[in-house]
Predict the 3D structure of the following.
Amino acid sequence: MLVDSDVHVGYETLLDLCDYLDAPTRELVRHSGTNGLGMPTYPWYHPTGWLRGDTYDRAATEVGAQLPGQDLERVRGKLLDAHDVSHAILTPDQAAAFSILPNAELAARLCQGYNNWLLERFLEEEPRVRGLLVVPAQHPEAAAGEIRRLGPRDEFVGVFLPGGARAPYGNPVYEPLWRTCAELGLPVAVHTHFEGVGIAGPVTAAGYPDHYVEYHTLCGAGMWGHFVSILCHGVFERYSDARLMMMEGGLVPFVGLLWRLETNWRACRSEIPHCVRPPSEYVWEHVRFTTQPLEEPGDERLLLPAIEGLRPWETLCYASDYPHWDFDEPAQTLRRFPVEWRDAVAHANARSFYRLPTPVPA
Amino acid sequence: MRRVAVFCVDGRFHALADRCPHRGAPLCSRGEVVTGIEVRNGRLTTGPPNALVRCPWHKWDFEIATGRCAVHGRLRVRRYTVRTDGDELVVSLDLPRPWQTASTSHAPG
C-alpha cells in the first residue's frame, strides 16, 4: 500500500476554470491584460525544466505553460497505476498563487472556481485521489467560508496554504481559518510555493536571490517561518485536534529549528504564554512532514542520524511531488529508510493524518 | 528487459543503457541531448555541441562519449561497445574492457 502525499495537478490556462467561476469573475478572466488574466509567477525559471521530461509532450507545449498535459488519465498512467498508489493527495500548481494576489476578493472567487474544477475533473472521477482545498490565505474570513462550503465533502481531506505569505500562519489574523478547520476536523497543509512572489515576503531576509537554484535551496524558509509561528502562537493549545502537514520544506532544517525554538522557549515563555508546553510536544502530536525532496548527502549514511530528531518513524509521510523535476520515486525513496519504518512512512502515517479509508483488497 | 540507446556524436557512435544510475529513470529514451554551459577563461560559453544527455527526472547530465556523470563524480551510466560492420552497427552487450574505447568506429560516408 502506498499513499503519495504530494501530487501536483492543475489547469493548463486560467480559461479552463471559466465554467467553474461566477459570471463577473469569468469576465475578468477573459478580458484582463492583453489576452486574459495572468497570475504572478516566479521571477526565476528552472534552467533545465520544471517537470519530469517523460510526463509531457514538450513540442506540443506553449512557452510559459503551467502544468501541461497533467489530466487525470496522465496522472493515472504515470503515477497511480505505475506505482500502485492507493491514495494520492492532490496539491495545486498555479492555483497556489491565488493566496499571494493583492486582490483578496478576486482571490477568493478564483479559489472557489479551482475547487469546483478539482472536484469535478479529478475527485469525483477517481476514488484514489483526495484534494486539498485551495483558499485565499490573505482573506481568512473568505477562506473560512470556502472551507465551510466544500470542506464537509469526503473528497477534500485538508486545506492548502502556500509557503509564500503576507504574514506567518500563526498570526491572529488567521484565527477564522484555524477555527473553521477545527470545527470540520480538517488539517492544514503548508507547501513551499511562491515565496518572494506577489504579496509574499522575500524568500529570506538576505534579500532577493538572483538564481532559481538559490531560491530552490532556500524555499523551505517560508515553511520554517510558518512552523515556528504556529507553534509560538499556541494554535495547537487552542485547537487540540488541529493538524499541520509541512510539505517540501526539507526535513533536516526542521530538526535544528525545533532545537533552537525549544531552547528559546525556555527563556522566552513569558512572551508566548499560549505556547504552554515545550514546542516539540506539539510537533509529535500535531505536525507531520512529507518526505520529498529527501535530502541526498554525498555520504548516504549521514541521512538517518540527521533526521532522527524529527521522530521520522512517526512524522514522515512519503511524497513523490509528481510531476516535478525533483520527483522522488517511491521504491527508491522508501529503500533509504529502515525496514521497520517503511509501512509508517509509505502509508500508515498519512492515512492516520488525513483520516483516509483503508483500501479494500481487490 | 534491457534497453540500449545508440548515439552518433561528431561522427562517432556510442551506446548507453537507457537507465539513469541515479534513480533508474529512462535516461536516453525520455532524456534530452544537450550542449553544456560552462565558464572558460572567465567567459560564459558552451561546451562541445550535443555531447551530453540530460536525465528527464532530476536533470543530471551525462557525457555521451564516456557515460560519466557531469554532476556526480562516482556515477556513470552503463556503456556498451559499438562497432560498424559494413552497413550495420553492432552493439556488444559486454562492458568495454578498460583498454578499449566505448566507440571504435566512425560513421560511414
